[in-house]
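Researcher: Batch entry, complex prediction.
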Amino acid sequence: MPLFRNIASMVALLPMIVISLTVFVGCIIYSFVYSLTNSKLVPVINYVGFDQYERLFKQRKWDVAVENIFIYGFVFTIGCLVIGFLLAVLIDQKIRGESLFRTIFLYPYAMSFVVTGLVWKWVLNPTFGLENSMHMWGFGWFELDWLVNRDLAIYAVCIAAVWQGAGFVMVLMLAGLRGIDEDIWKSLSIEGVAKWKSYLFVILPMLRPMVVTAIVLIAAGVVKVYDLILALTSGGPGYATTTPAMYVMENFFSRANLGQAFAASIIMFISVVCILAPWAFYEFYLRNKYAAN
Amino acid sequence: MKKLFSILLTIFLPLSYSNVSKAAGHMEAEVIHWWTSGGEQAAISQFAEAWQEMGNTWIDTAITGGDNARGTTVNRIIGGNPPTAAQFNISKQFVDLVEQGLLQSLEEVASAEGWRDFIYPPELIETCEFEGEFYCVPVNIHSWQWMWINNDVYKQVGLPVPQTFEDFLAGAPTIQAAGIIPLALGGQGWQESGMFDVVASSIMGFPLMRSVYRDKDLDAFRDGRFESVLNTYRELNQFTDEGSPGRLWNDTTAMVIEGKAAMQVMGDWARGEFAVAGMEAMKDYSCVIPGKEKYVALGGDVFVFPKNDDPKVKDTQLAMASMMVNPTVQAKFNNAKGSLPMRLDVDTSAADACMQMGLDLIQNPDAIMRESDDWNTPAFTAAWGDIISEFRNDPNYTVAQAMDDLEGVLTSGL
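Model: Structure tokens for the complex:
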């Protein structure tokens, strides 16, 4: 009877199981049911079939939001990993004042996204930010209008996000680098392998667990990105930097369009499941199977 | 132990007293609103003071941002813990609450006091009346229809103060050549679509605007004048600065006040900013209602009173509704707010030249203009605003395509 084997731990887990089922699963079902209605300000049962989904997919704004989340997810993840790894490698060179640099690079991570957003909003603002300062210092050719340029604004958001997240990846990677055995370095230098090659082809594969951890933590932040963009651009110019989460929140509150908000959140949920399911299948099923063999 | 008891007694004794006084006709009211700026606070405290003078308690729940405040109100109503009164705009924002039977009817006090006789203009009654009963109290009228102009800038370049958008566009290159931003516009959705509606009404007139926004009349929409509105709007946007996206309205007004920009299209709440800066209406700055036909748009605020299980709350709500329409309270409130009162028999002697212009105009029923959100749901106006905002920000978005997309919203049934 494996079900009753760990009765004490089962009892201890019960509240969590109940809460997960009622809150998460319950809310998902609730959202789905109401996404089939034309609820506006208050939830009402007034079925309209899949109209809300149809409307959702016709929205130019939703397309922009989905495109943005992919751009943001890609640039933010890659940016954090590359810059974080490079910083970790540089700090790993037994430099002077290491702890000072570590603190400086990790500091942004201690800030809330709202603060990061506001800081970069001022830095990147063309009329009183960096561009203006450069002009006043005599560099009239200097141009930095990413934040107000609708094609580049989403990359400005990425810069701010990478600035905040890279330090955290650096710390993870640095911990990994410090865990590398000295003997490996010694044998690499005996073989005469160039330093950059050793890092790229020997050390980096050994850091796989750190990389996976970093990716999981970063990816969780990607889907729910909301506050950073709200503080930095409020979705603008126009709606060039809007994201699915913002679309949902907007329809929930200012637009009083609950049905649409529920439909959008269900689509968000399904896409997250689609991305996570293969990974979870591998992690919890296939790996155990191979491990058992 | 004795000490503990005495401490407890000092804590709880006053509470028990207040309970006694509550039973004896004292009323307690919690009010949710989003008036948090300096001038707005001064205005809402006129209500609070009048309420307290009646011997009641006012619990102020100020929440920044209209969206947040309205969201909180709805959540609390659905959660079973409604406030006594809550602010909404003159619009369809709360129509769902009425239809779901979540709001207290104010008909009792409205018919006793004859609200239908003194509320002016009568369009306000239309906003609040559902199936012959009053469900909201209009408290003020704010109008979007204004151009705020720095007179010094026009003096400097030697041009007369523009009276229409055409005048403005003719002079804008000269102003730009003088190193001044011709048009100050904050690039937030509500500011962009607000200005669009002002351009629309001034170019195509209110009757046509009504057939588009209210009747969704596609023939009227396609008769050519709406395209010219879009064209003018695009032309105007050439004269903004690159710092525009995301800028707050009051920061934008400050640019006009400081003479960095020549003109801003904004509602009459901007007057407060000029007043605080010590500028005098018509002398240092001009307020102009653009266009040959002059309109005053009927925006503003209402209070609604959510139903409560406790029967005593209804009396409180009716008393507060009656207090809000009281002419003395209305005079104090609107003078502090800078808005027009919702009845004509109010003392407005403190009005400045700009407010006087609005007061004169509103007496003429033909000059009263409704806003899109009077007829349309927030979902409709937001979808519409998205297109306007996209049209302003994307130079590749053609007029023809915008027309098609706007028609899509008109026929969407939102």
